[in-house]
Write a structure and sequence with these properties.
The complex is a heterodimer of chains A (348) and B (399). With 348 residues, chain A is an alpha/beta fold. Chain A contains eleven helices and seven strands. Chain A has helices spanning 2-10, 64-84, 113-118, 134-159, 170-181, 216-223, 253-262, 276-288, 297-300, 305-311, 314-321, and strands at residues 102-107, 126-131, 209-213, 229-235, 263-273, 292-294, 327-333. In chain A, 39% of the residues are buried. By secondary structure, chain B is mainly beta. Helices cover 9% and strands 43% of the residues of chain B. Chain B has five helices and 32 strands. Chain B has a five-stranded mixed beta sheet with strand order 2-3-4-5-6, with no helix packed on it. In chain B, strands 23, 24, 25, 26 and 27 form a five-stranded antiparallel beta sheet that branches. In chain B, strand 21 and strand 22 (231-236) form a beta hairpin. The longest helix of chain B has 10 residues, at 237-246. Chain B is globular. The relative contact order of chain B is 0.12. Classes of the chains: A alpha/beta (348), B mainly beta (399). The interface between A and B is large, with 41 and 35 residues. Chain B: Keywords: Nucleus, Repeat, tRNA processing, WD repeat. Chain B: Required for the formation of N(7)-methylguanine at position 46 (m7G46) in tRNA. In the complex, it is required to stabilize and induce conformational changes of the catalytic subunit. Chain B: Belongs to the WD repeat TRM82 family.
Chain lengths: 348, 399
């Protein structure tokens, strides 16, 4: 055991550095590119993205690291379970849980700021980030692996009796980050791996977030069943300024029908941008789309996801540093008003 | 010199068949008599049909009650005619190249599916002159139509289901069949997922209003439950048609090989049609000289395929009553027949109907020096990245 923890410390996972994974923002979504996508949602094996949330069959050869964490983390797992709340299929849990389904999707997730911020707020919820740029997806996959590895290391230390290992108070941290945004930016400060817990335990241990390379404009129905998602995030999307490129915009009448299809009635679509024209475009299209209804600002104040949407992404922080404006527009997926005798929209 | 071939066949439920050849089309009745045509000198009694716009006929459709007919050209000209006197009800210039058209159940609208991925709705009533011109954006004769729904892909076909609650079915180059409510098509009912390549044709049937049948570049015909999108059955054409390649009767030439895929044997479905009177689905496959019959049975299911040999590979097929009309694809050393007509024989299969076939083959058509070869559907349907060596395209190029 002691040898193992020594070895674990030597192999402390390193967070990847963004500067090695930069890629220009613009991609032609209409060109043919080789993507991996399942024939239909039931064919997708999500267990490779969220190994901790899918049971390993007894007698099946799992990978050594995963089995080790299942054994070692049992005590910590139970404590973590308590922190996460009831009903969570925890790490190493033998509970006969039904296959978990992804419920949040971040469309154009970039470097993963939103996912990393949301993960500990909703530890029982599986979230996926979708990004079309190869280098950026590679970065995010490494980032998530590293965060999970660091959490595993912290759990081991806590198990080994290290009382300095604490759980993060997620809400307090978020409040601090928002306050920090108002402080002047120090350009000489080392690149911070903001909103990712490297020193403290986070509920969910980042096992509930994953990223994929996918062209969302073509393949969403391959991954998600009708009404599967409860939240869709579209943050700081490519504005595609030129008129002839407007069809490539991620919010369009065409795509709204697909978002409405994969989002359950009562689910929420979050959009934010610093480009006023794009905000106007989004609002115009969403207001005109019969299956979405604007959520008033007052209602958004109680939604814990909103501060993450506004502040947690690299783009969001950049805009704040440059004293830009951010335009938030959130919509609820409602039942089709055209269908006679439509059921009232369920609560979010 | 060779005859200009028929590229498109479309049948009405009221006993008329349209045969299109380049920029012209002819309308014949059940006996093969030409009752109307856009070409001159076809038959003394034939009504002359006025043509609008330029370009070859790309798609055609009859309304469900047979009262209207629409034709769309490669140059985006859409014309809607009354079938009693062949007067023009309405003309329309589509925004983008249109690949398929279909009337909605009442005939009040014509749905057009374009290569940009959008379905538009054109009202079929004659436009009120002042109102339409006032609405036109750039002062031209075209009026803006409402986009009904969109895919982010090239649309290959559009159809409307039968039954009390109609759905519009659209299929695209990215293997998808989409089922949307109608007229509230922003509300996606289901996706039919399963095809592995571009879906070329979707057919609905009055005798089986809950199901739809599609054909695709992946060499399969699939049966779907419309309301759920569930795949009910897959028919692999290779199993029944591979012997045509072995026997050398399947035409596999240079243009087929340029379809960017490894194998030379391809089974690209050109068209699936419901044969209402026969309770069957009829399928024609590019380059293979057959008609595939799939009888429908309650279940729902498609029974074992019956394959009927024809003299030459097909270009299109339509079902007029209990007659299956196949237009021949241009084939260099081919027969001089334009079409072949099959009718149910006493043995339960289909046999050549010389009467109707003979009448239709007597259609006066233009003579050309060289018959243009139609490119394989795999040329536009296949994914572009498949022929690039080391396909590590991360989409970083181009805006």
């Amino acid at each position: 055991m002691a040898a193992e923890s020594e070895q674990g410390q030597e192999q402390q996972p390193k967070l990847p550095q963004k500067r090695y994974f930069r890629q220009r923002a613009h991609v032609n979504v209409f060109s043919d590119m080789a993507f991996e996508y399942p024939e239909r949602p039931s064919a997708q094996d999500w267990s490779t993205h969220y190994p901790a949330y899918f049971r390993v069959q007894a007698g099946q050869a799992g990978d050594a690291k995963r089995q080790a964490s299942a054994e070692d983390g049992d005590t910590a797992g139970r404590e973590a379970q308590a922190k996460r709340g009831p009903g969570a299929a925890g790490i190493g849990s033998d509970a006969d849980a039904p296959a978990a389904k992804v419920e949040f999707a971040d469309i154009g997730c970039g470097y993963g700021g939103l996912l990393v911020a949301l993960a500990p707020l909703y530890p029982n919820t599986l979230m996926v980030g979708m990004e079309i740029r190869t280098k950026v997806v590679n970065y995010l996959q490494k980032r998530i692996e590293a965060l999970r590895g660091l959490q595993h290391g912290l759990l081991q230390r806590q198990n080994g009796g290290d009382t300095s290992v604490e759980w993060v108070d997620v809400r307090a941290k978020l409040r601090q980050e928002i306050a920090d945004l108002a402080a002047p930016h120090d350009p000489s400060a080392p690149e911070l791996h903001d909103n990712g817990e490297t020193e403290r335990l986070a509920p969910g241990h980042y096992e509930n977030i994953a990223s994929m390379r996918i062209n969302c404009q073509k393949y969403l129905p391959n991954f998600f069943e009708k009404g599967q998602l409860s939240k869709i995030f579209i943050l700081f999307a490519d504005p595609h300024f030129k008129r002839r490129k407007h069809k490539a915009r991620i919010v369009s009448a065409t795509m709204l029908a697909e978002y409405a299809y994969i989002l359950r009635p009562g689910g929420v679509l979050y959009t934010i941008t610093d480009v006023k024209d794009l905000y106007d475009w989004n609002v115009r299209h969403l207001d005109a789309f019969p299956l979405f209804e604007r959520i008033a600002d007052a209602e958004l104040e109680t939604d814990p996801a909103v501060p993450c949407v506004v502040n947690s992404t690299e783009e969001g922080k950049k805009v704040a540093r440059n004293k830009g404006s951010k335009y938030l527009a959130c919509y609820r997926r409602i039942e089709d008003p055209a269908e006679a005798g439509a059921a009232p929209t369920p609560a979010a | 010199m060779a005859r200009l071939p028929i590229s498109l066949v479309e049948a009405s439920p009221t006993g008329l068949v349209a045969l299109a050849s380049d920029a012209d089309f002819h309308i014949a009745d059940r006996t093969g008599k030409v009752v109307a045509s856009t070409a001159d000198g076809v038959a003394s009694s034939a009504v002359h049909i006025g043509k609008h716009g330029t370009g070859a006929i790309r798609a055609a459709a009859f309304s469900r009650d047979g009262a209207l007919f629409a034709a769309c050209t490669t140059e985006k000209a859409v014309t809607i005619y009354r079938t009693d006197d062949w007067s023009v009800v309405r003309t329309h210039e589509a925004e983008k190249r249109t690949n398929a058209i279909a009337f909605d159940p009442s005939g009040a609208f014509l749905l057009t599916a374009d290569k940009f991925g959008d379905v538009h709705r054109i009202p079929t009533a004659a436009p009120a002159p002042s109102a339409e011109v006032a609405m036109a954006e750039d002062g031209g004769a075209k009026a803006k139509t409402e986009p009904l729904l969109g895919h982010v892909s090239i649309l290959c076909d559009v159809a409307v289901s039968y039954g009390p609650r109609p759905f519009v079915l659209t299929c695209d180059r990215d293997e998808k069949l989409r089922v949307s409510r109608y007229p509230n098509a922003y509300n996606i009912q289901a996706f039919g997922l399963g095809h592995k390549e571009f879906v070329t044709s979707v057919a609905t049937a009055q005798f089986a209003p809950d199901i739809a049948v599609t054909g695709a570049g992946d060499g399969t015909v699939r049966l779907w439950d419309i309301a759920s999108g569930r795949l009910l059955q897959t028919v692999e054409l290779e199993g029944i048609l591979s012997k045509y390649y072995a026997d050398g009767r399947a035409v596999c030439d240079k243009s087929t090989r340029e379809d960017r895929t490894a194998g030379a044997e391809r089974y690209g479905v050109l068209r699936v049609r419901a044969a209402e009177d026969l309770r069957q689905f009829v399928v024609v496959v590019e380059r293979i000289p057959v008609v595939v019959i799939l009888p429908f049975s309650e279940g729902p299911g498609l029974d074992s395929a019956r394959v009927v040999d024809i003299a030459s590979p097909p270009a299109d097929v339509a079902v007029l009553g209990d007659r299956v009309i196949v237009a021949y694809a241009p084939a260099a050393p081919g027969p001089s027949d334009l079409v072949v007509v099959l009718s149910p024989s006493s043995s339960g299969s289909l046999a050549v109907d010389e009467t109707l076939g003979g009448a239709l083959n007597a259609l006066p058509t233009a003579e050309v020096d060289v018959v243009p070869q139609a490119p394989s559907i795999f040329v536009w349907g296949g994914k572009a990245y498949l022929d690039r060596p080391g396909n590590e395209d991360d989409g970083d190029g181009g805006d």
